[in-house]
User: Fold this.
Amino acid sequence: MKIQAQPLFTKLLSEMGPQGWWPARNHWEIILGAILVQNTNWRNVARSLNQLELATNLEPQKIAVLPLADLQAYIRPSGFYINKSRAIQTIFQWLATYDFALETVKAAYGSQLRNQLLTIRGIGDETADVLLVYVFKEVTFIADKYAQKLFTRIYGQPFTSYRQLKKSVLLPATFTNEQAQEFHGLIVEFGKCYLKKEAAWQSSFLTDFDPTPSILS
DNA sequence: GGCCAGGACACCA
DNA sequence: TGGTGTCATGGC
Assistant:
């Protein structure tokens, strides 16, 4: 089953307005947040980011050389701190070899950038796509848990895995990076607001969304 | 006190 | 390829 994303994106955007995602001040905070938020409430992530900012001012050169024990202490509120600290240290030390020039990194790996990110232990499908969209300004769909719930609900077919949903969703050829960023933000914010409670869903604006035209096969 | 949150990974069949 | 246990914390 293939699904065109444009109608849902248009509906979400018109009803909710631009979300301005990702919530961060710079690329380094996005990288940190993307790793820290894995299976974790954002409130806990915010605590960790605050402590990291106090220690490093979120400067990548400082993050890259943080002693592991210190890094783990700062991010402890986000849980899974041993795995996450390793991922953070690995990716920042890798970026350091390119002097934190993101354009250089992108140019160096080209179409293999996603695979390169996946070689980092602690960075999987979702985090890799988040980094591609919000840090490296590429256009791809982030098929996270909220998206899986939303598409399952709308299209009446269970989407229970990241890769399954990802390969089913077709972004328009004209989709921009800004739109890809916005799409993920809209899906997450919608999920936070409505997806949890059945009653809220029933009364929500998506009840009048007709998914049929966007189903290709 | 149990459940969950914007996953990833090793292990298994 | 797909299912299960594990990793850890804090809020509700």
In short: The beta strands of chain A are 3-4, 169-170.
